[in-house]
Specification:
Number of helices: 16
CATH topology of the largest domain: Rossmann fold
Radius of gyration: 21 Å
Largest sheet: 5 strands, parallel
Distance between the termini: 35 Å
Strand content: 15-25%
């Protein structure tokens, strides 16, 4: 506590830190365990780690790893598909830098780019469309990954490609939706989450009603906040106060539009529809949590254009990502932590990137690292 207070010098912040400690310590006798809060988004998770917010009230409060960035949860078979597309002749595969190191069965995109595959990192799907326009003799594929807040730009790009008749552009769609994924957490019989901090970026698109449903149906308090550590501290204080008072409410600290962005939602719904099932690495299938292109845009669907097989590769049987997500286990309690699953051979969601909680824990177990290496 002392070290953290020294790192946050302002009086208002010190007051919040002290309040968090007092509120969480008053809850642990009733719960008989630390209070467990989840920051769902990747940027919020990284803010918690980079500012060591898990040390605020070590004995009384725990921030549980959220879903993180969408790329972390890419299932093995979807990465394998992207690898196969990238190695086809006359193909340029484009994607975001965070996807490059996510492994399939044997390799990742960064490794096969080193062997000559034309794989380019971009900042937006519009960049991919421009590459297609500049390379008419090549098939340009955008490996699309992201949550609700990133789907709009992909939908707009597909719409532009259709309007301009750009036939050498397609999308390998792996957009995921967080709302069904949050429901999967709350439906878990072993749930150990007392409250959630949800990203303002997603809420600004979909609005507040989906979160209100969770509060009313599951009696879990939810705060909508941005990804700064100050916002997370304030959200934590508010959640703890609700728990002390015995309340479960939705509070919007980021002042997002209550109805979301209706124009953006209309554009997204014109281009995309939900998949009945989508597999999340290490967590299994989550109903209606993935998106695919509608039949009106099938000519831009890379799965159809390249006739990708429908085979599903199951995750390692003993990966226990869901128990880590729900706060039941710590990473080192997973049966394959360090042995079957390590940063060199990542099997589970939170080992696929150095920003994941399992990869972070791996770094502090040097004897496991030495054995694995």
């Amino acid at each position: 506590m002392t070290e953290l207070v020294e790192s946050f010098q302002s009086k208002p912040t010190q007051t919040i830190l002290q309040d968090i400690t007092g509120l969480s310590s008053s809850l642990t006798p009733k719960l008989r365990r630390p209070v467990k809060l989840m920051a769902v988004s990747g940027e919020q998770t990284l803010a918690i780690a980079s500012h060591n917010l898990n040390g605020i009230a070590l004995e009384h409060l725990e921030f549980v790893q959220g879903y993180g960035k969408a790329a972390w949860s890419l299932p093995i078979d979807r990465v394998n598909h992207a690898l196969a597309i990238a190695q086809k002749p006359d193909v340029i595969l484009t994607t975001f830098s965070e996807v490059m190191t996510i492994r399939g069965s044997q390799q990742n995109l960064s490794e096969i780019r080193g062997t000559g595959a034309d794989i380019r990192t971009i900042n937006s799907p519009q960049d991919a469309l421009k590459i297609a326009q500049e390379n008419p003799s090549k098939q340009v594929v955008f490996f699309a990954v992201g949550y609700e807040d990133s789907v709009l730009s992909t939908a707009q790009t597909v719409g532009q490609a259709a309007a301009e008749g750009i036939s050498n552009f397609s999308v390998y769609c792996n957009h995921m939706t967080l709302i069904p994924a949050i429901k999967a957490i709350l439906d878990s019989p072993s749930i150990h989450i007392d409250g959630l901090i949800c990203a303002s970026e997603v809420a600004s698109v979909i609005g507040l009603e989906p979160y209100r449903f969770f509060v009313e149906s599951y009696r879990k308090p939810i705060i909508i906040a941005d990804s700064s550590h100050q916002a997370i501290l304030k959200a934590t204080q508010t959640l703890l106060q609700q728990l002390v008072d015995g309340h479960a409410e939705l509070q919007d600290q980021a002042q997002v539009p209550a109805e979301g962005d209706s124009e953006a939602l209309q554009t997204i719904c014109e281009v995309f529809e939900p998949r009945e099932f989508y597999e999340w690495r290490g967590m299994g299938s989550v109903d209606f949590s993935g998106l695919r292109l509608r039949s009106d845009y099938v000519q831009f669907d890379a799965e159809v254009k390249f006739n990708l097989p429908k085979l599903k590769l199951a995750d390692v049987q003993f990966a226990q990502c869901m128990t880590i997500l729900t706060g039941v286990f710590q990473p080192c309690q997973c049966k394959i932590f360090g042995a079957g699953c390590s940063p060199k051979t990542p099997m589970g969601t939170y080992m696929t990137t150095e920003e994941g909680i399992c990869a972070m824990h791996y770094k502090v177990f040097p004897f496991i690292a030495a054995i694995s290496d």
